[in-house]
Specification:
By secondary structure, the protein is of the alpha/beta class. It folds into two domains: 211 residues, FAD/NAD(P)-binding domain (3-Layer(bba) Sandwich); 121 residues, 3-Layer(bba) Sandwich (FAD/NAD(P)-binding domain). Helices cover 22% and strands 29% of the residues. It contains seven helices and 21 strands. Strands 1, 2, 5, 6, 7, 8 and 20 form a seven-stranded mixed β-sheet that branches. A hairpin with a 3-residue loop joins strand 7 and strand 8. The longest helix is centred in the last third of the chain and has 19 residues. It is elongated and about 70 Å long. The two termini are 43 Å apart. The chain binds flavin-adenine dinucleotide.
Length: 341
């Protein structure tokens, strides 16, 4: 049976705008669950330019993509948002009582009164390596993300790639697997140097293998991998393997958002500029994913949209409660919620 979670608001996307939405909703006492396909928060800021400086966030003359993400996480911590990483929201359904049921590809169900789509340019999806017939092994013995480490326990694992994901999972899975081989096409890595050094130490200690090569072919039965054939400069070879983790980077696709019956404009969700509500009442779209006349795809636009969306969301969740406009500077009530008064 799938896990079922009931909450006020589900936010799809843990990019900067989804994170700030937690703050604005939290000030109004709305409890949020945040779901992201990536394994960490920050969206484009953390995934595409963590170390690049941003110069147009109000009040920060300069902040990096990761720095902004870290600050947002600190700012929203008082509201205790619950994060669900490495899962894609695949289904969105409006129920008879006006609430919503969301489903993820990790077999979870979320029931909520308000849905906030902060899905940016769409879902980051893994690039599939050019290996013939790999589709028939996907989600059975070939995975593009590690959802549950236990799925890799006592397995013969082959990890392919030279970036942070490949190296991080090499280091994290090594203690629980039966065997682990890291395969990369060259002897230079994009991953953090500290991880590369740790990986080299494990190779030197005989705890894992490292091979220079590329995956040419898979062999197995009914989607269960048995062998991985590699093309290598030193001569082709075959590795016994029960799990393959290719990390070939990510592309952005609109993904399932397109199938939820929302009015779209050129693959973006049409919203009003009073509440940033979509064509389905109770479903809001903020940040890069939305469209309205004059839209600028800037982080600060998404922050403004989050503030107005939250007021409208409050009316849906607590229709009988009057919302009094307050400043965080002067309201003891708000300061108590932030844990500073
Ligand atoms: P995103 O950051 O795209 O986050 C959306 C998240 O939603 C992603 O993590 C994605 O995985 C997740 N998601 C999508 N669909 C699903 C689904 N179905 N299920 C689960 N999760 C899902 N903006 C500025 O204001 N100033 C700048 O200087 C600036 N510089 C930039 C430099 C670069 C190189 C790039 C690429 C962008 C830059 N931007 C800048 C743009 C800025 O990054 C975006 O405006 C911002 O990231 C949008 O935030 P978001 O939260 O709307 O979406």
């Amino acid at each position: 049976m799938s896990n079922e979670i009931t909450t006020d608001v589900v936010i799809i996307g843990a990019g900067p705008v989804g994170l700030f939405a937690v703050f604005e909703l939290g000030l109004l006492d709305l409890k949020c669950h945040v779901i992201d396909i990536l394994d960490r928060p920050g969206g484009q800021c953390a995934e595409l330019y963590p170390e690049k400086p941003i110069y147009d966030i109000p009040g920060f003359p300069v902040v990096t993509g990761q720095g902004l993400t870290d600050n947002l996480l600190q700012q929203i911590a008082p509201f205790g948002p619950e994060f669900h990483y490495s899962r894609m929201v695949t289904g969105l359904e409006k129920l008879e009582d006006g609430s919503f049921r969301l489903t993820t590809d990790a077999d979870e169900t979320f029931l909520c009164k308000v849905v906030v789509i902060a899905a940016g340019g769409g879902s980051f999806q893994p690039k599939r390596p050019p290996v013939p017939g790999i589709e028939e092994y996907e989600n059975k013995s070939v995975f593009y993300a590690v959802r549950k480490m236990d799925d890799f326990r006592d397995q013969d694992v082959v990890i392919v790639g030279g970036g942070d994901s490949a190296l991080d999972w090499t280091l994290n899975l090594q203690p629980i697997v039966r065997s682990l081989t890291l395969v990369h096409r060259r002897d230079a890595f994009k991953a953090a140097p500290a991880s590369v050094n740790q990986m080299k130490e494990l190779v030197a200690d005989g705890k894992i293998n490292f091979l220079l090569g590329q995956v040419a072919r898979l062999e197995g039965t009914d989607g269960q991998l048995e062998n991985v054939h590699l093309t290598m400069q030193a001569g082709d070879t075959t590795l016994p393997a029960t799990r393959l983790l290719p990390f070939f980077g990510l592309t952005m696709k609109l993904g399932p958002v397109a199938d939820w019956g929302l009015e779209l404009n050129d693959n973006l969700i049409s919203v009003d500029t009073e509440k940033f509500q979509s064509s389905v009442p109770g479903v809001f779209a903020i940040g890069d994913i939305n469209h309205y006349p004059g839209k600028l795809k800037l982080i600060l636009s998404g922050f403004h949209e989050a503030a107005l969306m939250a007021q409208a969301a409050k009316h849906i969740v607590d229709p009988d409660q009057r919302v009094v406009f307050q400043y965080t500077t002067s309201s003891t009530k708000l300061q108590k919620k932030l844990g500073v008064a």
